[in-house]
């Protein structure tokens, strides 16, 4: 089922654990900018996770990405809307990926947020191509993972330029 801007989207039952997760613990139910709200949830999750060792943090990010495929796929199928805008688990995964090996500090947290949102919203190639060509839970996750990788690359280059490492 596809929707136009004038159609009312189905609401998730947040009492169902997979909807609760897919909708970013409820953040995706925001009437305005649900993707941004989901990314803010990701920031809140990142702050304590940033203290993990790099291998453990990478394992958490990989787990979030892999879990997102069935979580987002189930929620989309149940609601009858592929990539319902309220499904924001993919934004959570994308931001957490952006912040892999990021330098510590609030400026980097904010830079990662801005970079990820820019790549997620603008969807330059190949992100746009993935968004249009890959379906199901994998498709929902893949464009945000690609946006996260692009944002990660820019953030890492910026860190090298600024920190000189």
Notes on the structure:
The chain has helices at 17-22, 34-49, 54-79, 89-98, 106-122, 127-133, 136-163. By secondary structure, it is mainly α. It has one domain (35-163). Helix 2 (34-49) crosses helix 4 (89-98). The longest helix is centred in the C-terminal third of the chain and has 28 residues, at 136-163. Residues 1-6 have low confidence and may be disordered.
Order of helices and strands: HHHHHHH
Total helical elements = 7
Largest sheet: none
Percent in helix: 55-70%
Structural class: mainly alpha
In terms of per-residue confidence, which ranges show pLDDT below 50 for 5 or more consecutive residues? Answer: 1-6
The number of distinct β-strands equals 0
Number of domains: 1
Per-chain topology:
Layout: H1 17-22, H2 34-49, H3 54-79, H4 89-98, H5 106-122, H6 127-133, H7 136-163
